[in-house]
Amino acid sequence: MAQTKVKNQNLWYLAWALIIVGALFAALNAARNNGAKISWRPVPMDGHRMQSVPVNSENIDRALGVFDDEGYVAPSGVRYADDSPVAAVAQVLMEAQQQLAPLKAVIGHSDAMLLNLRTEPDLPLGNLFADALRTYGSAYFKVPMDFALTNFGGIRVPLPKGDITLEDITSMFPFRNYMVWAKMKGSSLLTLFDQLAETKAFQATSGATIRVKNHVLESALIGGQPIVPDKIYNVITIDFLLDGGDKLNIGALSEHVVLSGVLLQDVMLDYVRGCEARGELVHGQADGRVIMTED
């Protein structure tokens, strides 16, 4: 009997989901047919629309609400009957928290939400991670890294303001992308920068100052100095970009490549935990390291 009830509830949820999706497509088609322009903009995933807060291991009742003798009480204070769809969903979420508890542990704190828009070459989140990657790579390989490059697409969600949980970091870097050390001639680095200049927003970098105009590379400095064509530079990057990822082939441009067993999420976890151990807030900022302009 209980299984039948759960099955009926699931069918009910599915029906409503199909209705909502259908209504959305109908609205979009109507707007398109009327010649209306549809624009999209990023919205911080901070729960401000529903007055909710991100769940961590210490605030389940405040984030998801509570059950009492009279039913379910949502974080907003609204009460729902035990047999309501809202209560059923809340029950599933609360039960799941027991298994997800380790991921909800707070490992650090940030002073601002950092979005990953992928449309700007000089983003606080991309800069922060590229800097963390260069620092980690230098320590791991025991060689000073001249330059770091990673892709915006590998950073999947924003960094929240305030509490940073283990789940936040694993959600940011869900792919099994590994850190890689590539030795590259200066001439090959310039070829790489030429390729990146042709794209919409370059990628996340550290250690370089780059200027692009009309998608043509105008200047590039490494460590504040002009790039020497025959010099070998130590570049820390990710295996995804070695052979075709985001249309880049760093492997083919390199003199030598050294793989590591370090995931990108491990690099970010190390950085966040290091900040917390030092009593520092995680902070990222735009600093003009890559500027792309068009006439």
Quick structural gist:
The chain has 295 residues and is α+β, with helices and mostly antiparallel strands. It is built from 8 helices and 14 strands.
Structure description:
The protein has helices spanning 2-33, 60-64, 85-100, 124-141, 166-172, 186-197, 250-253, 264-277, and strands spanning 66-68, 71-73, 79-80, 106-110, 147-150, 162-165, 178-185, 204-206, 208-213, 216-222, 225-226, 232-238, 256-263, 290-293. The protein is of the alpha+beta class and 295 residues long. It has three domains: 1-40; 42-104, no CATH class; 109-293, 5'-nucleotidase,  domain 2 (Alpha-Beta Complex), CATH 3.90.780.10. The strands form four sheets. A five-stranded mixed β-sheet has the order 8-5-12-7-13. Helix 4 (124-141) packs across helix 8. The protein is globular, with a radius of gyration of 24 Å. 29% of the residues are buried.
Secondary structural class: alpha+beta
Q: What is the third-level CATH name, the topology of the largest domain?
A: 5'-nucleotidase,  domain 2
Spans of at least 5 consecutive residues with low confidence = 2-7
> Terminal Cα separation, in Å?
69 Å
Average pLDDT value? 86
CATH class descriptor name of the largest domain:
Alpha Beta
**From the coordinates shown, what is the CATH architecture of the largest domain?**
Alpha-Beta Complex
Shape: globular
Q: How many domains in all?
A: 3
Secondary-structure element order, N to C:
HHEEEHEHEEHEHEEEEEHEHE
Q: For the largest beta sheet, what order do the strands appear in spatially?
A: 8-5-12-7-13
Largest sheet: 5 strands, mixed
Helix content: 25-40%
Q: Output the CATH homologous superfamily of the largest domain.
A: 5'-Nucleotidase, C-terminal domain
Strand content: 15-25%
What radius of gyration results from the CA coordinates?
24 Å
Structure annotation, total helices: 8
